[in-house]
Write a structure and sequence with these properties.
Layout: E1 3-4, E2 15-21, E3 25-38, E4 41-42, E5 51-57, E6 80-84, E7 91-99, E8 104-111, E9 129-141, E10 146-147, E11 154-158, E12 164-171, E13 175-185, E14 193-201, E15 210-215, E16 219-225, E17 231-238, E18 248-258, E19 311-312, E20 314-320, E21 323-328, E22 333-336, E23 342-348, E24 357-364, E25 374-382, E26 396-397, E27 400-401, E28 403-407, E29 413-419, E30 424-434, E31 448-457, E32 467-474, E33 477-484, H1 503-515, H2 521-529, H3 533-552, H4 565-587, H5 592-612, H6 618-642, H7 650-674, H8 680-698, H9 711-716
Parallel strand pairs: 10-12, 19-23
Antiparallel strand pairs: 1-9, 2-8, 3-4, 3-7, 3-9, 5-6, 5-8, 11-18, 12-17, 13-16, 13-18, 14-15, 14-17, 20-21, 21-31, 22-31, 23-30, 24-29, 24-31, 25-28, 25-30, 26-27, 32-33
Helix pairs in contact: 1-3, 1-8, 2-3, 2-8, 3-4, 4-5, 4-6, 7-8
Amino acid sequence: SPRKLSPFRSFASTELFHFHVPEDTFLAVWNLIIFKEQGGSFGDHCPDQSVTVYFRSGAPPVINPLHTHFPGDTAVPGVFSLTLSWTLPNRTSGIFNVSSPLPGDWFLAAHLPPGPRPHLCQVGLQDECQYLLQPQLIVRRLLDVAVLVPGRPSEQTLSPHNRSALYKVFVPSFTYRVSAQLVCVGGRGASACPLTLRLRPKAPPLHNSSSVACGGASVCQLELALPPWGRWVYVRVETPSRGSGRTIRFQLCVRLQECPKPNLSRALAPGAAMNMPQSLGNQPLPLEPPSLGAPVEGPGATSPPEHCWPVRPTLRNELDTFSVHFYIFFGPSVALPPERPAVFGLRLLPVLDSGGVLSLELHLNASSLRQENVTVFGCLTHEVPLSLGDAAVTCSKESLAGFLLSVSATSRVARLRIPFPQTGTWFLTLRSLCGAGPRFVRCRNATAEVRLRTFLSPCVDDCGPYGQCKLLRTHNYLYAACECKAGGGGGWGCTDSADALTYGFQLLSTLLLCLSNLMFLPPVVLAIRSRYVLEAAVYTFTMFFSTFYHACDQPGIVVFCIMDYDVLQFCDFLGSLMSVWVTVIAMARLQPVVKQVLYLLGAMLLSMALQLDRHGLWNLLGPSLFALGILATAWTVRSVRRRHCYPPTWRRWLFYLCPGSLIAGSAILLYAFVETRDNYFYIHSIWHMLIAGSVGFLLPPRAKTDHRVPPGARARGCGYQLCINEQEELGLVG
């Protein structure tokens, strides 16, 4: 379904879409449809705004359109991006193609260009231009991809009308190398084997994948080091663009070199020792032909490579959503002998864990070094562990790249944070080396000790003092993002202080917003003197909750909350609207019963309206216009009965009603059209003072008791005639 796009302020303001690409997909096409709406119809008159769309496989994209600074020690993965412009007045579309996409979860994030801070309370004044995005995913899959059994050669043919053939083999855990060997059958000369062999893990090979051209050689071989565990590796055999025009017969064999697992493979059935899928491991494998070079086992066999170290499991402790701690057995301290590294596995659950932040901390125990110049390196990789060498320390090899950390006596703490990590198993390899960079040597007898802490959290440092970590949802997918407050820090974790307010400015804005509510004290005193006790209670309620709401609703560190933020906000908005309501109803001078019914009815209806939309402009204009209608009706009826204008004195109009109406109208105009997020602290303070001042002018004077003479007593009196005291309409004077 289409979703409304918003200007980018933080990742919480983007729209996130979740897709799933099946295995054996050779083409994925995203059809992006964007259209405008205004007031339920096509927005032909809405301005054109470019739409930026981001794509990423495995986890949501980490984006930075504002070019702000990320928090320290944060790794930022790469993404694909696409910007769409408008081709029609109210509609546009775009196509994003991905050849041989990685299978699994794909995420799409979209937003409008970053713009100026919007007005806070103009919702409902006019029809808003809406920009909606509806992405559609179309995939094309390869059917019946041939599955190769490791170590078993298979006879294959490539006909003249087929330029390529695709195969796949499953890679179990603890596999450190995949090698594919191709032998052409029946060919001779320079064009004996006009074939090209390509390898790629997880998805069908592309033109830039690892390849080897067989050419005149009858046997060619291609290797893939450190393939991802528990995934498929695809093998493509193809002919050049100008084929030979004949059927080519070849023999293909794929070998997996696994780390030795003593006393394990003997107890398992054939095929299960390789951790193969059940459908492939239920038959014994035949003997391999010597033409493809069977490995020789025996006393003279080579020792396992440096990547074959045992993986120590971790204990997963889930505390809350995106709050997971990984504990190591016999930890958290880890002893690193000089002769071997330590490898740990961190399992992130599919979909559930990709919406948080994966954090890793290393603390070196300097007392364990024994005055040796020891440096402990850590390499964090995804889906397959990577061992660190003795000389040049790197955390990358061929197509595998990880994140490198190091701690030493001079820098004892290292941190790494990965927002929106890819799910699956992450491997952390720790190794201690001696010497100084750039070349290190293996230590002799120094055993370093480090303290390891790994955990999954919703946001980076809980978004700091200038932001709020929000848990967001798009259909069935949960993710967390920081929403930075106006005037505070910016960036991914609300830690970029380039545009942050100083402490003095924060204190000034807080004092202005809070102390401006003291302007309600004169209306409270006037209401009590005029015996408007209920109205005085409403003004006191408004003054109290508005003061503490604004003390709690601050972007920085000058914050003071006496109760939950949502409760304070509701009470502040309700008090403001009730103050307007009771003031206008009091001006109508209705019967006490009618006035009390209207007060109660207004409180209930305003509470309902605030629950629906607290920032809507009609929440203020609606009750105000309705109350003004009641006021106009009451004054009109009273004027008709008395046969002259009500209120009857020009002084009441000139010195009270007109100034009060002008002040209230100015406050509403500021509230609706001038107030933005940038000028909020002083414009809203002026709003407080204007509203409180208008109440002092508009609140009617105390209603005096009408001491009329009873009809029976008038005959016995001296014939005095009672007149209306015009002073009661002048207001509260001295």
